[in-house]
């Protein structure tokens, strides 16, 4: 067993602060709430009333078995899991509060919530703390206890918030229990009334959560994603309208379909970048349905929360992309596929989840207004409809209409197909599209590398037509779309970059010229001196 050694500081009769000291290994006696470390020191639990009232200074908190540590942090490496375990505890402000007069409850707060009570961050040089080394980083420290009145006031304010939160949780639990006894129509009606009531309390007279410049956003995306103009317009329309409403019935969950490398993921990443909203990409096949061992919805939300800088409000407004969605189709491979689809129904409808983000700290996230997008290649649907994958040999884009029945026949339950709307089919990229990406796109690997060489080495990069044609041919032969263009170009320029980096070559060359030969041997190129 492992636990965190904590130092007790009594702030008042009903408030106790705990500073984490180190992770320790030992034996946990759950019955007596005792932890005996490997040096035979015995510690009592942090929120135990008898311990708090005693003169003892140290205690333990957050006991974990080795198995639990490895599972919680998704690792097979105990050392890595212990580092994450310590980081979680050290990154939070820990304190216990007596709300009832008889029992202390242990709480954690992010240090970002105590900005006014923090000194400037101090930089440690890396040291061993218990069983693992704390890396070199900034550690926030609390102010001196001569400002304890300020701290006590802050904690008292937090106590009020905790009480309000407990009341909401209790009411929500009662509501959920009542819903289970009602028929489907009553459940939907209750949910709608509850949502409207919460919306009025939290966002009075303001249904537009984010007013998006759709023309500016579309222009930004079209300069970077080639060959998908209509698809971009449809997606921007959906996301924009989602942000313009607080009505859960108007929220849309688009499904992006099309072969690999045509820009589905890149569109969403750039969209989130433009709107300055958190973006989370999650591999859907890693989910497991109820009753199966594996990842669940809380793992998606925990990642989204982390990508939102541990900010609940930002997370509720974030963009979540369920990638490789087609791979959870029930196609006779694994009976858990349909279980995963059923698991996602409430997630897509909009549900409040209690997510444990660190030891003793649970947050509440509501997926009702989140922008959730699904995406996948759906290869066999395209095959079944006699369409070529990846690129058309005739360089003509096919207009492909995929119906709900096609997706159901592919292996999806009707309930989830009905929740995925609209269906946006991305075009196959032609050779002309790829050429535009290489020579004109804002994310062209050639243009980016030319700019980089000029800014860093003051060297011009010139490539002839044979180089461009050969890059396109390689990409077409591999059938991986635009995704591989960057890899092909950057790999071909590795030796060029290595040469330009050498100090002896600095300010020595003015130009580097490449042709298709460099793709077969990246040492074949021409350097021209100044």
Q: Regarding CATH, which class of the largest domain?
A: Alpha Beta
Superfamily at the CATH H level of the largest domain? P-loop containing nucleotide triphosphate hydrolases
Total domains: 3
Measured distance between first and last alpha carbons:
66 Å
Write up what this structure looks like.
With 530 residues, the protein is α/β, with parallel strands linked by helices. The chain has 3 domains: 2-158, no CATH class; 214-429, 3-Layer(aba) Sandwich (Rossmann fold), CATH 3.40.50; 432-529, Helicase, Ruva Protein, domain 3, CATH 1.10.8.60. It is built from 20 helices and 21 strands. A 5-stranded mixed β-barrel has the order 1-2-3-4-5. A 5-stranded parallel β-sheet has the order 13-14-17-12-18, sandwiched between helices. Strand 1 (2-12) and strand 2 form a beta hairpin. Helix 6 (214-222) packs antiparallel against helix 7. It is globular.
Please give the structural blueprint.
Elements (H helix, E strand, L loop, with lengths): L1 E11 L2 E15 L4 E4 L4 E4 L3 H5 L4 E7 L1 H7 L5 H13 L1 E7 L5 E7 L11 E2 L3 E3 L2 E3 L3 E2 L8 H33 L3 H19 L11 H9 L6 H15 L11 E3 L6 H12 L3 E5 L13 H11 L4 H5 L2 E5 L12 H14 L2 E7 L2 E6 L4 E6 L2 H6 L19 H7 L3 H6 L3 E3 L5 H9 L5 H13 L2 E4 L1 H14 L4 H10 L1 H8 L7 E6 L2 H4 L5 E4 L1
Parallel strand pairs: 4-5, 12-17, 12-18, 13-14, 14-17, 19-20
Antiparallel strand pairs: 1-2, 1-5, 2-3, 2-6, 3-4, 6-7, 8-11, 9-10, 15-16, 20-21
Helix pairs in contact: 2-3, 6-7, 15-17, 17-18
């Amino acid at each position: 067993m492992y636990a965190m050694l904590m130092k007790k500081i009594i702030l008042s009769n009903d408030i106790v602060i705990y500073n984490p000291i180190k992770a320790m290994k030992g034996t946990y006696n759950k019955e007596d709430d005792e932890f005996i470390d490997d040096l035979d020191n015995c510690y009592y639990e942090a929120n135990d009333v008898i311990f708090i009232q005693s003169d003892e200074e140290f205690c333990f908190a957050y006991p974990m078995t080795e198995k639990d540590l490895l599972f919680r942090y998704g690792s097979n490496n105990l050392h890595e899991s212990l580092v994450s375990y310590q980081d979680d505890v050290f990154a939070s402000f820990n304190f216990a509060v007596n709300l009832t007069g008889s029992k202390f409850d242990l709480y954690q707060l992010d240090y970002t919530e105590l900005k006014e009570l923090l000194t400037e961050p101090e930089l440690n040089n890396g040291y061993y703390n218990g069983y693992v080394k704390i890396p070199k980083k900034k550690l926030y420290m609390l102010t001196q206890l001569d400002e304890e009145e300020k701290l006590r006031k802050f904690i008292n304010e937090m106590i009020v918030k905790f009480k309000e939160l407990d009341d909401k949780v209790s009411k929500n639990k009662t509501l959920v229990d009542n819903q289970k006894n009602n028929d489907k129509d009553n459940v939907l009606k209750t949910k709608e009334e509850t949502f409207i009531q919460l919306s009025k309390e939290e966002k009075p007279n303001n249904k537009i959560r984010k007013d998006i410049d759709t023309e500016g956003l579309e222009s930004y995306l079209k300069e970077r994603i080639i060959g998908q103009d209509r698809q971009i317009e449809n997606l921007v329309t959906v996301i924009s309208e989602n942000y313009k409403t607080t009505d859960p019935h108007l929220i849309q969950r688009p499904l992006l379909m099309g072969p690999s490398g045509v820009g589905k993921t890149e569109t969403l990443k750039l969209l989130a970048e433009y709107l300055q909203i958190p973006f989370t990409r999650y591999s859907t096949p890693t989910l497991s349905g109820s009753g199966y061992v594996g990842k669940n919805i809380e793992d998606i939300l925990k990642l989204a929360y982390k990508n939102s800088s541990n900010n609940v409000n930002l997370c509720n407004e974030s963009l979540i992309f369920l990638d490789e969605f087609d791979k959870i189709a029930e196609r006779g491979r694994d009976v858990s596929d349909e279980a995963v689809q059923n698991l996602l129904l409430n997630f897509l409808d909009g549900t409040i989840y209690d997510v444990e983000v660190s030891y003793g700290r649970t947050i509440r996230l509501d997926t009702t207004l989140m922008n959730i997008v699904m995406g996948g290649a759906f290869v066999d649907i395209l095959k079944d409809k006699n369409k070529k994958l990846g690129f058309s040999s005739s360089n003509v884009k096919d207009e492909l209409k995929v119906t709900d029945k096609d997706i159901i026949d592919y292996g999806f339950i009707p309930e989830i197909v009905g929740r995925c709307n609209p269906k946006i089919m991305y075009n196959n990229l032609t050779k002309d599209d790829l050429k535009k990406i290489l020579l004109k796109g804002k994310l062209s690997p050639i243009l980016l590398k030319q700019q980089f060489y000029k800014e860093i080495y003051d060297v011009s990069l010139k490539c002839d037509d044979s180089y461009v044609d050969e890059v396109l041919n390689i990409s077409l032969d591999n059938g991986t779309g635009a995704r591989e263009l960057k890899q092909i170009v950057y790999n071909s320029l590795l030796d060029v970059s290595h040469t330009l980096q050498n100090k002896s070559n600095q300010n020595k060359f003015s130009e580097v010229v490449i042709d298709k030969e460099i793709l077969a041997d990246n040492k074949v190129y021409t350097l021209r001196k100044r």
